[in-house]
Amino acid sequence: MEAEPGNLYASLGKEVSGADMQLIQDAFKQLKGRYDAGSSPLGGIGQITLMCLAKLNSESQLLECGNAGHKQYLSYQLPTEASRPILSSEFLSDPAVYERAWNALTERMDPTQRSLGSDSEATNRLLYTTVMAFACCVDLWQRRSRKTPGTFFEILVGSVLGQLLPDWRRSKHIGIPDSAERVSTDIVFGNPHRGPDLVCPVKITTRERIVQPYAHQRILDAVFGWGTYRSVLFCVSEMQLDGKKGVKEICVPGTIKLFQQHLASLAAICYLDPPARYLENDVRDTLPVHSMGSFLSEVLWDMTD
Amino acid sequence: MEAEPGNLYASLGKEVSGADMQLIQDAFKQLKGRYDAGSSPLGGIGQITLMCLAKLNSESQLLECGNAGHKQYLSYQLPTEASRPILSSEFLSDPAVYERAWNALTERMDPTQRSLGSDSEATNRLLYTTVMAFACCVDLWQRRSRKTPGTFFEILVGSVLGQLLPDWRRSKHIGIPDSAERVSTDIVFGNPHRGPDLVCPVKITTRERIVQPYAHQRILDAVFGWGTYRSVLFCVSEMQLDGKKGVKEICVPGTIKLFQQHLASLAAICYLDPPARYLENDVRDTLPVHSMGSFLSEVLWDMTD
């Protein structure tokens, strides 16, 4: 971790309370610049999250907005705007609690084991809160920047994996030999040892766009031979507001099974808020579905060994 | 053609001038009902187009909005709204001219030859005008119905092909044997003779969604064996308004070549307004690109023989 441990929140002083959206966006631009230049700026991500939580808590109301099965959802609300639904059990709305969780993560992160440590549930809550705090700020105060939350999530995934795979080379594209074409993925980690490179499509939700990581894996299999690249798809959730009636989870288990069996094989799908439907046996018999916490505690080690 | 030839416009009486959007949407719903029930209601499509042209001409202004290469684009405009760009050379804004073109098409349509006749340019103008008149009405007066123009285009393609392939069975899905899954395409025509079925993905513009028809073709090849299904992708254009600066054509020739070579093989792509870039040799060496007029004059016959 590049940020000094401890006192992340205190070090920002009072400016974070009620920070305007421009300040958050400026910090995001700076963060993206450092990420694009090759670093894994986890400390900066944590600082932005604290700014977002402070703004959300001081300027909007966190209210219940519906249930899906046993999961309860909240939404930050203004008189005329509502944020996307937030899974209550995974969200650390209190900046002080978030900061403690952040520091605990810093302590248990272990690149030699390529693991974020054994407390996979704490890891998942921390990462979920990180993505959602930023996304909710954009929902309430900068709705036109629809793509920014996706980029922020990509930077989070790329930076966490970058810290855990320090000797793997990160890029965005895979060139096709003897051709001007290339496969533009979100994140690729080049394996420094023998073994497959890791391709990481990153999408807040998938819907019909789930086809793309499968098509890319298929092309990579065709061009480079099976086993040269492995894809792990990283998502936040498939939950959305359903008018005034609450929340709904849009799942496409049939499509996933069809693609996994007849188009290409993804190595795994990871969600911060896994849809209940995708944790049922018929889907998990087809491909591994993990919470991102479990993936970063246990699975990454195996997959990159 | 199911509508009686001649006097399509006159038969509608004065109600079409300034018809409100609700009247057009009601006619569209009725049309969709008939199409979904299996008919190919070309006459109803022509009538809706005349209602749309009358409304556009009487309630908005048709103004130049930019050029792309040698192509000049127009846009129907209200004080606060602008329609999508319309290719001037392909658009029959005068309802009387449109009606004559419609009657001429009726006369030269020849299901025994599976052809709309030799005047492929007139066919293309007629079909282009049909899609754009409806789409521009939605742009100006019902912007929330974003998906309706795509459905209208799908009904147009399905109905024209339905008239030309009267003994082929039209459906929307292809079931996967020994499985609950199915491939949901836009239109499938089942071949009554020996030879491949025809799969027709229909998209007003493609952008990143071009991957879907390729993925479907690949799955069909994997499940049923190569040559059981052939896909022809039908599009309107890749042109869009570019802020206040005019128009721009969003092309992805590298992606198309990559997919065509390494993912699956489409039999052809047809555009009502083919992007100049896709008519260059490097793309056409990879896969056939046609205007929809040429496809319906000449190519369909060969392909379904």
Description of the molecule:
- The structure is a homodimer of 305-residue chains.
- Chain A is of the alpha/beta class.
- Chain A has 9 helices and 12 strands.
- Chain A has helices spanning 21-36, 42-59, 95-108, 120-141, 148-164, 211-224, 253-262, 281-284, 292-303; strands spanning 61-68, 71-77, 86-87, 169-175, 182-190, 197-200, 202-203, 229-235, 239-241, 247-249, 268-271, 289-291.
- In chain A, strands 4, 5, 6, 7, 8, 11 and 12 form a 7-stranded mixed sheet that branches. A 3-stranded antiparallel sheet of chain A has the order 1-2-3. A two-stranded antiparallel sheet of chain A has the order 9-10.
- In chain A, strand 9 (239-241) and strand 10 (247-249) form a beta hairpin.
- The longest helix of chain A has 22 residues, at 120-141.
- Chain A is globular and about 55 Å long.
- The two termini of chain A are 22 Å apart.
- Mean pLDDT of chain A is 91; it is low at 1-7.
- The interface between A and B is medium-sized, with 23 and 23 residues.
